[in-house]
Amino acid sequence: MAFPVIGMVGGGQLARMTHEAGIPLGIRFRLLSDTPQDSAAQVVNDVVVGDYRDLDTLRAFARGCDVITFDHEHVPTEHLRALEAEGVKVRPGPDALVHAQDKGVMRARLTEIGVPCPRHRIVADPADVARFAAEGAAGEGDAPGGDGWPVVLKTVRGGYDGKGVWVVRSAAEAAEPFRAGVPVLAEEKVDFVRELAANVVRSPHGQAVAYPVVESVQVDGVCDTVIAPAPDLPGELSGQAQRLALTVARELDVTGHLAVELFQTRDGRILVNELAMRPHNSGHWTQDGAVTSQFANHLRAVLDLPLGDPRPRAPWTVMVNVLGGDYPDMYQGYPHCMARDPQLKIHMYGKDVKPGRKVGHVNTYGDDLADVRERAAHAAAYLRGTITE
Amino acid sequence: MAFPVIGMVGGGQLARMTHEAGIPLGIRFRLLSDTPQDSAAQVVNDVVVGDYRDLDTLRAFARGCDVITFDHEHVPTEHLRALEAEGVKVRPGPDALVHAQDKGVMRARLTEIGVPCPRHRIVADPADVARFAAEGAAGEGDAPGGDGWPVVLKTVRGGYDGKGVWVVRSAAEAAEPFRAGVPVLAEEKVDFVRELAANVVRSPHGQAVAYPVVESVQVDGVCDTVIAPAPDLPGELSGQAQRLALTVARELDVTGHLAVELFQTRDGRILVNELAMRPHNSGHWTQDGAVTSQFANHLRAVLDLPLGDPRPRAPWTVMVNVLGGDYPDMYQGYPHCMARDPQLKIHMYGKDVKPGRKVGHVNTYGDDLADVRERAAHAAAYLRGTITE
């Protein structure tokens, strides 16, 4: 049997949903998981429990695989370079992945290739943050108030879901980010009307597909709702966003799914916020709303197979995240949600409920955006326990 | 965590695809498999290898589950009755399932509830078969030629995919079926214009959904192509078929998916051919062509959850089976098939290729039936090795 073995590093929900997409392809799926109870470990047959930070563990894991890919971006770049040097197919490769792992490297490269970013630079200490703010007051930029504050500070490595990001209004507030001992990137706080995501998938031989540009609504720094396609987005801006994402994928030689998170500014420009080189929360809607899901296309790209059609199957698709709330039991909401909406698509991750933790999402689709949004929002809130009828 | 544990007896592709549908529901899936390499065993985490014909094995397996269901219909009825008596939730229950396991019992019950069947009766030996033929010559029936031959003979238990079925033209040809030592059912050979399937899903509390009636094309006794919905099927006949299937589900107290295979006669009547109480080949199109797949709805029913919308998502959906041919390697056809049709949906089962064995299927959907059929037929033939470009 010549079906390839995909090695997935990381056992979170992205791995779980990638395995789900891989089942119909008949490919074999091998998982490197932190624990046997991880989201993906619960549903995969071939599970290796081990530490992805250990090179020998990675080596042994990769030995049974035709290609390895990732559920997260925390595998040390130097380990991936070592594996690649030893002949392991790593997709996306470390030279691409470093741009999703290190925000400083990402900003430098994007600027190099002419992709619009917020004003930014690495800052050394709180006094330097104040200088950065002043540079913004003097020159161009979107900072409201015109004095260059607030400033967004990010550790260049390690942040996700709002962690490792601070919004500060003075040098006095700027001390904490530097305590991690990791370089800190300062960025202007963009006066955006909304956040978008332009996601693409690219394969090793250069084929790429672009998904419809979506609107992404964050609550407390975490993705809450995604609307596909982004409502009232001028065709020119949508095309610009997709071309930008395809350019980034090509210039960085990305293999697999690339999520490009964007700001749409008040004056109608788009700026790159962040990159992720893996399936992404902003693409979960594709599981039910697109011809080919981000997970299926990520697998095809990693296997160097022709990519699937990224087009939508419905006029509107909405995803709302289900975060842990007061109820430990997500299952008890099923009868209500399923009876209320026979078209609801529930995606649970098998994770223990902790307040604010991503434990699942719901997708809805249809012709009427208000209705599609309401159905998804209601179901997510009900499952979470925020509403009880 | 209050997510239920579904115990699936049998590790074939139906179990594999049911697990695939269960992943997003967050439910836990436990498999009783003949071997560790079975289709479903390759993709499930919690696998028990054991013999479903052994009651103690079934008992131990069921102990870890909230409900058990089936990939096939071969679990001995008496074992299921024993489990039910011991408090195990068996869905569908043995009293329903026996009608899918024993064609004699099925025919008797359907006749009792007034559901149209081909002329039939149990026959004792070849001479009795000749008498059955004569009964058909004398009275009503669709037998061409008017002498009551040919006659279809079926062992009441054990047949599938054309096995255990004989079409005989004389008493002399009728010896073989009786050698199995199992009761033999004789049926008139129906002069049908085509075969249909009216599939429904029913839950323990009586809710039921009916899928669009499909056309099913058999080649050499095995399902080859399914077209959803059946083209040019008068609304009245379609409604009749769906109502018939819902009636059977209710009268037999079926829980889960019920496939009702039908003949559409030359004079516009529908007759029941066979029943299956599990997800079925005639319903694979639903994975990509319906709002809720047969697998997802079977799970909901077995868990007594509200059922999902069974309506189609596309005007036409076609499934073509991929049978083993001369190529041992199904994967090598992927680049061609995926490049030719970016909307193609491949579903492979992870099974070793043997000539004529069901190793997967492809689904296509769209607005133009001829195009949708051509795309699916081409892909299946290419993967099988029947064509090479």
UniProtKB/TrEMBL annotation, chains A, B:
GO terms for cellular component: cytosol. Pathway: Purine metabolism; IMP biosynthesis via de novo pathway; 5-amino-1-(5-phospho-D-ribosyl)imidazole-4-carboxylate from 5-amino-1-(5-phospho-D-ribosyl)imidazole (N5-CAIR route): step 1/2. SUPFAM superfamilies: Glutathione synthetase ATP-binding domain-like, PreATP-grasp domain, Rudiment single hybrid motif. Belongs to the PurK/PurT family. ATP binds at K103, K154, E187, E188, K189, V190, E195, N273, E274. This is N5-carboxyaminoimidazole ribonucleotide synthase. One of its GO terms (molecular function) is 5-(carboxyamino)imidazole ribonucleotide synthase activity.
